[in-house]
Design brief:
Strand content: 15-25%
Shape: globular
Radius of gyration: 24 Å
Low-confidence stretches: 12-68, 72-82, 335-343, 543-575
Number of helices: 16
Length: 575
């Protein structure tokens, strides 16, 4: 164990040195830099540093965008007493009220993988899967075999087969290597051409000379299809996990199952279909082509393409929002008590009366290339409106918060507990070449931010911790909101966004806000955060001077002192 820590410390220090040497010859202010280091990018120029403590070379991404308007609205005055305080979100997206009994929080990659297989085998009408990519190992092949088996059963059923399979992946990531996501799925297209659709999203920002010059892997930094949603008939799994063996074994993420939720399943089916319609369609011979009449993402007019994509996605959001508003009005706003009573008695007689919702699901979409910034607006509003003594737990596998998010964390009243991956559990740890320096670069970003926290004397209110678990990597992202005086969260965000520049500005992202009044579900949500922070250590500064060369020390967290006795001394030098 001691040898492993020494090796980790040496690799982190060596990576930091490599990172600085690499950055020394990088030209500043070039848009193409994001093509090489998009995952680590924030904004290229954040203006003059208001506190003169941020290192300019690390701010690699372009575009200074205007602030996003904060959206607030009072609760609906016609709703029953006790209706939750986050109903303003339905001004932007559809609101789906469900029973908490339909929500199951998963905890492990193995549980996630087994659930995927069970759900695929049980599907009768639809399988819709959106992911960054599909891996090429044995576990991924088993998923494809499950799809083939289920499609075969549907084909042999009497009459025309009802089952439809729609898969949405990213074009660049899904095409990487000779054996890739495309080659894994082509047999399904060849065997079931009328039932299977494979769409490959290609960002409109990767085009022309840029597309010709940037090599494989690095071209993925320009923009990706990053949404992760897996649905089977009326059951929906929201996650940040991709369809790859690491995510089925020892790469920690988050997962939630929404059971028997047809309206939510319809929404995400329509969303994936909308993105699929503006994506390249995989053919049986491994070629791709656009749907007839559709503007090409990198050969056609970029503005026209983005306008069409915006219109298609917003049609899905707005139509679902209208449907749910009508349902909400019918349920809660009936002004005729008599007709409401008759309707209720009729429902009871037919046995179709649904339990009154105690949990609300809000899909939050972020597609900045298409001018859609809903997730950003809601996240910023949640951070802005969090009251004094409220606690926000936030986790990301890649710590590179946008400037707006950092400013809100440093300038608002709530307490923050931020969990990020230690270098040893970063997916790039131990990689060769420039990629091997990426964990050290994240440490540097982390240190820059925490140095500012310390200079503002906010260490008690804003605490950073690093997730560390032997033999595992960390990919979880999300947010938990604990109201003042409460030991349980009433809201969580779960899905694909990492709260960084890429998520906000470049990729296609989706997550859901889950708001619940049910104590049992709140306890489930709390247990996940409790487990994550239980594997963490506090980040502190030693000999803080306000400079970027201070050392970062990791000590054991008192959060779970039953597992840790005393400090474990890992020093990381950023020199």
């Amino acid at each position: 164990m001691a040898a492993r820590k020494r090796k980790a410390r040496a690799m982190a220090a060596g990576g930091a040195a490599l990172w600085r040497r690499f950055s020394a010859w990088l030209p500043r202010g070039r848009l193409g830099l994001t093509a090489l280091l998009g995952r680590l990018s924030d904004r290229l120029s954040r203006g003059r540093d208001r506190r003169t403590r941020r290192s300019s070379w690390l701010l690699l991404a372009p575009l200074l965008t205007p602030p996003i308007p904060v959206i607030t609205a009072p609760p609906c005055s016609l709703c029953p007493e006790g209706a939750h305080r986050f109903q303003w979100i339905r001004n932007l997206v559809p609101e789906f009220g469900i029973s908490s009994s339909h929500v199951k929080v998963l905890s492990s990659p193995a549980e996630f993988y087994e659930l995927l297989k069970v759900q695929i085998k049980a599907a009768k009408q639809r399988v819709v899967m959106a992911s960054l990519y599909l891996g090429t190992g044995l576990l991924e092949q088993e998923l494809v075999d499950c799809l083939e088996e289920t499609l075969e059963k549907s084909l042999q059923a009497k009459g025309s087969p009802d089952l439809r399979v729609s898969i949405l992946l990213d074009y660049t990531r899904g095409s990487r290597g000779r054996k890739n996501s495309r080659t894994m799925l082509i047999p399904l297209l060849q065997r079931f051409p009328e039932q299977v659709r494979v769409s490959l999203f290609h960002t409109p920002n990767l085009r022309g000379l840029l597309r010709l010059l940037i090599p494989e892997r690095f071209n993925e930094t320009i923009g990706l299809q990053h949404i992760k949603v897996y649905l089977f008939d009326d059951n929906v799994i929201l996650s940040g996990a991709n369809l790859s063996d690491l995510y089925f074994t020892n790469r920690q993420d988050r997962y939630v199952l929404l059971r028997d939720s047809p309206e939510i399943a319809d929404f995400f089916t329509e969303l994936v279909d909308a993105i699929g319609d503006v994506s390249l369609q995989l053919q049986q011979d491994d070629t791709v082509q656009m749907m007839e009449g559709m503007v090409h993402p990198y050969q056609g007019d970029k503005v026209a393409y983005c306008e069409i994509a915006n219109r298609r996605v917003m049609e899905v959001i707005n139509s679902a929002r209208t449907r749910q508003e009508l349902l909400h009005a019918k349920t809660f706003h009936s002004s005729q008590a008599g007709s409401s009573l008759i309707s209720q008695q009729g429902s009871q007689a037919s046995g179709s009366l649904k339990p009154e919702p105690d949990t609300w699901i809000y899909p939050l979409i972020q597609m900045k290339p298409f001018g859609i910034q809903i997730d950003e607006m809601v996240t910023e509003t949640l951070l802005t409106e969090a009251e004094r003594d409220a606690r926000i737990y936030l986790t990301t596998g890649y710590f590179n918060l946008t400037q707006a998010y950092m400013d809100l964390i440093l300038g608002t009243r709530a307490e923050y507990r931020i969990l990020l991956a230690s270098p040893e559990v970063n997916g790039f740890f131990g990689a060769k070449g420039v990629a091997g320096a990426i964990p050290a670069a994240y440490v540097y970003i982390e240190h820059q931010f925490y140095s500012e926290v310390c200079c503002l004397q906010q260490q008690e209110r804003v605490q950073l911790q690093e997730y560390s678990r032997a033999g595992w990597t960390f990919h979880a992202k999300g947010l938990w909101l604990y109201l003042a005086g409460s030991d349980l969260p009433c809201l969580t965000l779960i899905g694909s966004p990492n709260f960084g520049y890429r998520s906000v500005h470049r990729d296609l992202e989706a997550q859901v806000a889950i708001v619940t009044e049910n104590k049992a579900l709140q306890q489930q949500l709390h247990q996940v955060s409790d487990r994550f922070w239980g594997c963490s250590g506090d980040v502190v500064l030693l000999g803080h001077t306000g400079n970027a060369d201070d050392a970062v020390a990791i000590k054991t967290s008192s959060y779970n002192n039953s597992k840790a006795a005393g400090a474990w001394g890992v020093l990381r030098s950023c020199q």
